[in-house]
Amino acid sequence: MKTLSLKYCLFVDSVTTKIASIIRWAPILMVLTVVIVVILRYLFSIGAIAIQELTMYLHGFLFLFSIPYGISKNTHVRVDLVYSRLSPSRKNLIDTIGHSVFLIPVGLFIFFSSLPYAEASWAMKERSSEVGGIPAIFALKACVTIAGVLLTLQGISELLKNLSNQTNSTG
Question: Which of 20, 74, 141, 169 has a Cα-to-Cα distance from 122 of 20 to 30 A?
Fold first, then answer.
């Protein structure tokens, strides 16, 4: 792999790994927020809309920001009935096509389709419609756009690695 593409791959993989090391705490925080909401509601008859919404935000963060990490670690879902029986060069070819035809275009689609949505939300500083809710829906919507960028960058990184593997195995 050429130096520039290797540096790119290492950088993107390190960013993805760093984000995953932070977001891995989301499920624990989600459980804690649900427990807090239940305790407040059933023991003290206190509603906690912001904490309920925080659970949903954490859920969104978890899925949006874990997908690039799953791609980087090759743990994403695929139909393994055929793939697992293929040679490494065939797997590499399928991954190259998959990243080029599906992953990168989907990441770009997510980015470009969510950008106006996030921009509009930021422009009006969109808030929760619930009284006492989190006053930052715009931040959550921006995460969809960021996730599209991260997915695209990780897809390019994986594509470069696959192309390098093809070059190394044929040359």
Answer: 20
Give residue 36's identity as a one-letter amino acid code.
Answer: I
Q: Residue 124 class from Cβ within 10 Å (0-12 exposed, 13-18 middle, 19+ buried)?
A: exposed
Identify the residue whose tokens are 């059933």: 42
**80-89 pLDDT tens trace:** 778 888 898 9
Over residues 29-56, the pLDDT tens digits come to 999 999 999 999 999 999 899 999 999 9
Cα 159 to Cα 150: distance, rounded to the nearest angstrom: 14
Q: What CA–CA distance (Å, rounded) separates 122 from 75? A: 34
Contact status, residue 54 vs residue 32, Cβ threshold 8 Å: no
Indicate the length of the chain as a whole number: 171
Q: What is the pLDDT of residues 147-160, one digit of tens each?
A: 999 999 999 999 99
Residue 19 and residue 65 in contact, taking contact as beta carbons nearer than 8 Å: yes
* CA 44 – CA 146 distance, rounded (Å): 38
